[in-house]
Amino acid sequence: xxxxxxxxxxxxLGERVDTRPASLEAARADxxxxxxxxxxxAIVNAASVADVQAALRIASATRTPVVPRGAGTGLAGGAxxxxxxxxxxxxxxxxxxxxxPDDLLAVVEPGILNADLxxxxxxxxxxxxxxxxxxxxxxxxxxxxxxxxxxxxxxxGVVRDAVLGVDLVLADGRLLxxxxxxxxxxxxxxxxxxxxxxxxxxxxxxxxxxxxxxxxEGERVTLTALFEGVRAAAVASAAVTASGxxxxxxxxxxxxxxxAVHRLLSLPAPPVGAAQLTIQTDGPVAADEARVIADxxxxxxxxxxxxxxxxxxxxxxAVRRAMHPAMETLGTTLIEDxxxxxxxxxxxxxxxxxIEREFGLVIPAVAHAGDGNLHPNFVFDGPDVPAVVWDAxxxxxxxxxxxxxxxxxxxxxxxxxxxxxxxxxxxxxxxxQRDIARVFDPLGILNPGKVFAP
Amino acid sequence: xxxxxxxxxxxxLGERVDTRPASLEAARADxxxxxxxxxxxAIVNAASVADVQAALRIASATRTPVVPRGAGTGLAGGAxxxxxxxxxxxxxxxxxxxxxPDDLLAVVEPGILNADLxxxxxxxxxxxxxxxxxxxxxxxxxxxxxxxxxxxxxxxGVVRDAVLGVDLVLADGRLLxxxxxxxxxxxxxxxxxxxxxxxxxxxxxxxxxxxxxxxxEGERVTLTALFEGVRAAAVASAAVTASGxxxxxxxxxxxxxxxAVHRLLSLPAPPVGAAQLTIQTDGPVAADEARVIADxxxxxxxxxxxxxxxxxxxxxxAVRRAMHPAMETLGTTLIEDxxxxxxxxxxxxxxxxxIEREFGLVIPAVAHAGDGNLHPNFVFDGPDVPAVVWDAxxxxxxxxxxxxxxxxxxxxxxxxxxxxxxxxxxxxxxxxQRDIARVFDPLGILNPGKVFAP
Lengths: 454, 454
Prior knowledge:
2 copies of one chain form a homodimer.
Chain A: H1 2-13, E1 17-18, H2 21-27, E2 42-45, H3 49-62, E3 66-69, E4 86-89, E5 96-100, E6 105-108, H4 114-121, E7 126-127, H5 140-146, H6 153-156, E8 163-169, E9 175-179, H7 191-195, E10 204-211, E11 213-214, E12 220-227, H8 230-243, E13 249-253, H9 255-264, E14 275-282, H10 286-299, E15 303-306, H11 310-321, H12 323-328, E16 332-335, H13 345-359, E17 365-368, E18 373-380, H14 387-402, H15 421-425, H16 427-440
Parallel strand pairs in A: 2-4, 3-4
Antiparallel strand pairs in A: 1-2, 5-6, 6-10, 7-11, 8-9, 8-10, 12-14, 12-15, 13-14, 13-17, 16-18, 17-18
Helix pairs in contact in A: 1-3, 8-10, 8-13, 13-14
């Protein structure tokens, strides 16, 4: 049966079908550290919409599960492909079909990398705002599938705010054009938004009409503020938000994170216990805004340093950007992704401190403080997440929900958080969402076991 | 049977059930000019979520159609209630439950008027950006149900951009809490977005968590530019968009509209054939932006007048705001709502001129030129839309679709555009959307005959 499926795929798609052991092995995993059980049947490297349709028609006819995949940089296991499954990669579909600076839109294939797209857009004076930390290595299609966020979201929005339309191939191979090219449009149900963040459970995104912004004019001003501890830094970030000045970037690093990055980058060790805010303003009044923010931070007990120029500003941000490599020096990492209302950020850091004490763990944490999205890092030895880490993570999720927050701000549910999905949605909404997915995919062959798995 | 339903409603909801003839007559219609056939069974004036749940449980048990209603200001007939149906009004649920300026959110009941909400928010230094022209008389719940837009959308977004979560009562009376309170959140499918613009087909919105903005600081600068004709004005508006300066408001009035408003307001008649752009900039660099825009407009052949102060600026905008009353002086009006990519605005006005010639009609048109949303007004005598007007409207829809546009930018499908819905969506997507609605409402009792009616 499996051999039949591969034979059918090869007959239709020829060299687009890859069954080399190393390729199959790679398709089992993403950047979450988790890998699927068993080896995929095959990888289909689709080069066109027709390739995607052909693969899905064969999958439907043979009831074979299909896992859509971009660059495999997800952090929740959503693209991991296991035994008996087809990995359907759209990474090779990476063309930019159309750029319209006058209409502030671009039509693209899903496999283009976020950073590559923005490099192509820049000469047109426009950009696509979603900026996940992975933007150099993650695809636009993957950003759409996960509903990605990033550092600039509080000011410039998330993926949901930046997509006008999506072309979607259903499980049975039919192609739908969802959404519109106009700024406004309310014709029927908003299926474009439904697909954003659906993690491959509704169909395969084979094209997107993206909403662009004009490049931001004026200077960027970057500053850092050191605080005695993480709670003081979190309170200060809430004070910045409450001041009404909107930074482009406001990142918080706790003491363990900051110390680990300084070690990695061979910078002088920060004061013991010190946490740091890194803030950037942009636009025509960036300098004025930075001055207001510096005053707020100083009043909140921070030691403020303002970058002299753009180069020094980039160096300050590089500290934050080195977080993931710094964590990798400490061990295997499970990166969590809870999000809370901005005012609850100090309380959420208190909860992390409590969970560290109760479970005897160190949980280095950074936060997109401008939007209340935290990434606590559970660090451990060996490839598998120990039970105590999952127990602590569960406590983290409960704490976030109790503070009016959510399980995942920007990484998605995938396999790693599926067992807590109903805790947040409630059983009725969980079942409703699953039933909606079934309308798109009656046979249940699209990314089974992800998001809605019982 | 009908008597039984009303008796059941009265037994449960008492004085909340209104069957007075004048009330029933009013519930047949909205502001579209269209009215449903027959009289509703009853109006339920829900005062609480429990009232909505009770009414829907009775409706489900008796298979009675329910039409959710806010203030009845819709322009597509979506809230019109006819024979054998219950009109379920949430207008009396108008409390603001919570305002959090620090988290930039508010939790509200659906029946509050948009303008009343913003009056309550202003002392907190925040506002809810969606600003349909009806904002003084339309409810937040209705704005959500239609996915409303307005004048400020190109700069400040539409309803879809301004809602974090929705509380929804399903057809069977169950209450779901959709969405989240945090800036980011990708837990499961984005059902909040699916409900926005669903026109009462998925459930009854009984609460909403709204995303707020801080009040815009700085001055507002208002200017107008007169052009020889509507095409020149449309080309100039596209030039403004292409210049990269983002006005808060950019409204276009064609010659017939402008002349009618000047007559209504007893202003001097504009030059024959002249069309007008009315533009407002705001924020810290409003004056600089207005200067750039004035230069663009002058270069495009416009005669520019800049308001000396805010009072004069409001007077200039009042001309645009008097459009609807001015049309009412001409006859009965069918207000259309097509939306096209901004660069296609001049071509769309050419199409309107062609349709005027071919069908022997005068079609006064205004446009939210900043976002490509046009409101051509078909004016006729008597209460019913003549066949020639529908034929011309159909030609208008086809032209908008051919230019990459959409049937409805902000008013919705309701009853008036349902027969063209599949033309835009395609048959496959139309059926998929209908099947999704059935997941929420298996008995098909929610607003039957609207949006998806065959």
